[in-house]
Amino acid sequence: MLESKIPAGTLEHKWTDYKGHCKLVNPANKRKLEIIVVGTGLAGASAAASLGELGYKVKAFCFQDSPRRAHSIAAQGGINAAKNYQNDGDSTFRLFYDTVKGGDYRSREANVYRLAEVSSNIIDQCVAQGVPFAREYGGVLSNRSFGGVQVQRTFYAAGQTGQQLLIGAYQALERQVALGNVKMYTRHEMQEIVIIDGKARGIIARDLISGKLERHFGHAVLLCSGGYGNVFYLSTNAMGSNVTAAWKAHKNGALFGNPCFTQIHPTCIPVTGDHQSKLTLMSESLRNDGRIWVPKQKGDTRKASQIPEEERDYYLERRYPAFGNLVPRDVASRAAKERCDEGYGVGSSRQAVYLDFSAAFERYGATEASITGIGNPSKEQIVALGKQVVKEKYGNLFDMYEKITGENPYEVPMRIYPAVHYTMGGLWVDYELMTTVKGLYALGEANFSDHGANRLGASALMQGLADGYFVIPYTIGNYLADEIYNKPISTDHEAFQTAEKMVRERLESLMNINGTQTVESFHKRLGKIMWNKCGMARNANGLQQAITEIQQLKKEFWSDLKIPGSINELNTELDKAGRVADFIELGELMCIDALNRNESCGGHFREEYQTPDGEALRDDANYMYVAAWEYKGDHYWELHKEPLQYDVIKPTQRNYK
Amino acid sequence: MEHYTMNLNLKVWKQKDQHAKGSFKMYRVENISSEMSFLEMFDVLNEQLITAGEDPIAFDHDCREGICGMCSMYINGKPHGPWQANTTCQLHMRAFQNEDTIVVEPWRANAFPVIKDLMVDRSAFDRIIQAGGYISVNTGNAVDGNAILIDKDNADNSFAAAMCIGCGACVAACKNSSAMLFVSAKVSHLALLPQGGPERHNRVINMITQMDKEGFGSCTNTGACEAACPKEISLTNIARLNNEYLKVSVVAEK
Fold first, then answer.
1. Does the domain at residues B123-251 carry the CATH identifier 1.10.1060.10?
2. Residue of A nearest to B146 (CA)
3. CB–CB of A473 and B139 under 8 A?
4. Chain-chain contact of A564 with B43 (C-beta, under 8 angstroms)
5. Less CB within 10 Å around the terminal CB: N or C of chain A?
6. How much is the ipTM here?
7. Cα of B183 to nearest chain A Cα, Å
8. Domain B5-105 in CATH: superfamily?
9. What distance in Å separates the CA atoms of residue A504 and residue A501, rounded to the nearest whole number?
10. Considering the entire predicted model, what is its pTM?
11. How confident is residue A77, by pLDDT bands cut at 50, 70 and 90?
């Protein structure tokens, strides 16, 4: 069943050979072929724009009021590329190697190599579009470091890299809209996939303003709908981010790959109370200069400033001297949890650790004093100068922290705690990014393919744009070349009617429950189950309990949900209800997957499987595969395995010490 | 920081749809924590309304970290509320005191029709971008990123303009509902970069034409837009836009 279609030949030549031999569609035929793109983040906007440029007829959909709002916009730190502009030993191979190792050897070599290969083109393309990356005085592009890596290959635009890249892709998309190659549907949400003779042929979408259902035909359908971190209720995802499009695909035959692989980001602003609706990330780039610590004494209630240096435990530097505060995300998150669980946490909730910049103030301040020729500066002078330097580098992040917490991070250390941030799992795709349903593709975070069990910082932007700008324009031709004989199918076709009827009935059954509990309250409860039992640490017992609890929650949801208003109008509660219903089903599958994987790898940490010093313990003999789940009916999935073969890299125990 | 709880009176604009006549409605919320965000306070209110069988208040929001530009409330007479350089989603309740009355309206501008309650239609901004807010370069045409050297100051100023989140606060703040700050931010972003050079003449003319067509008002340089902008987009960009526009209409051949 799982045919990954990885081209033959040596790793370095696979993509070149593929491009040299894949089928092409001539320009006259492209004009007759229609493509549907769901989602307009980096993957969706870049794909829609590039396919429009090629001459295909594209329809793009987003649930926001403009494609520019997609959540890629919130990415802060940067985008990786193997340019080796810094002359520090970077190469396509190193980016490939770091990504595979960072993913704890659970990703496909061929896909990751292609990603590293096209990474340079992405930077060039973005510069050509006018993305204002940070530059040096000589006019060249600037780079910085990110976790899990020893070279400087991250390109950035202050703390707003995602915003700038998305606006570049958005502008390219709007240009195609103006040219008539792309038709844009905003405030629309995909509700169902239409499959005819085994091929994806369209979607049913709901106009979120009028509530009306619409039928749209496409020779192919691209899902670029992002990740599913909101299954945890609290995450750094936007409020509207959801799994619905991917989940409908899954229930129509697309296999779901490694659903339990979730990334918990170590540096987020901690939860303050039950009212909390979302969590905010403090960029990984802060770990370049901030030092993470907790008090050496358990339950220490003194203020940070009253705890002397020798009573502070810089636990990352202690445990991982080689990478220190720049260990990969999964490692840093687990270490923070371990300290807090042991009773060393800080702040009123005791669920936080300090991220402290005082050493950076002194270091930068001393350099600055020397540059400006201040002889024998006082400590106060040094610190003041240092704060200025830090402000230039991270000013917007410090401001954001202060707005949210009301504390000034220039005066007191930041309090941070891990939070759900990204999902490595997603729809299973082959080398061409096609799911197990013909003509149905998944791009960007929505697919499972490139990050294994843990994603390295600044790689999500790279993957989204690689898929959209440089992969799908080639691979989709290989499929559509055989579709030129097929005329567009009328949306009166029986399959469209049936799909629309299903959606209508589902919406009606949600509205007709007429119970007493709100959507939000169910979502919160689901989130708590997932966070406590399928979060940063998991064990068989907890996962089994979680599965039972989620099944019960599902029953309760479908018998006691309360939604105000009606179907044929703007109804944000109904929109949310559909999404939460899908999250509940996904939550169960995530727990099943986590329970099946009797090993620890990357972000998936099973407490039963760890080394004596608490590191993730892989089981390559039994679990070196992609777990691809086939939906078989309510609460029932069948596991398919895609064995992972490492021809070039030799998997070892990851070591950041 | 000391935390406290408060009870509040909210005077909120309710409007069924674009064509209905709207009006203010009073609501009461209690036990609001000073640590909540303004939108979390609205979440509390909406949960209360849904449980009581009433219609919740419709409002736009998404990222809740001040970058997507979707949230859009006009709070106590100011777009995005009382804090400087801030979006509604980042406004926190410690800005308010117990028993305050808070007035919340949608953006008010002809070019931004109300969809429901506090939600407005800002698609006019997308159409202005379609008119020329881009560099015409197809995927695959690019030269090496470092082949184009860009003066750091120009790159920094271009970035400062490109930070615009397209929320529309500038339009809402302007007595003429002008979109000049939004348009000038895009014109500046691209005009300050060498890549934007070849199209700069057509771009400024086409974007301004589209802006007028959408029904935005004229700019009288009062600077209310800059004061309300959550990303502190500078009025200098409007000066640059006028400069670009004049050059084209008076001097250039096109």
1. yes
2. A140
3. yes
4. no
5. N
6. 0.97
7. 14
8. Beta-grasp domain (3.10.20.30)
9. 5
10. 0.97
11. confident
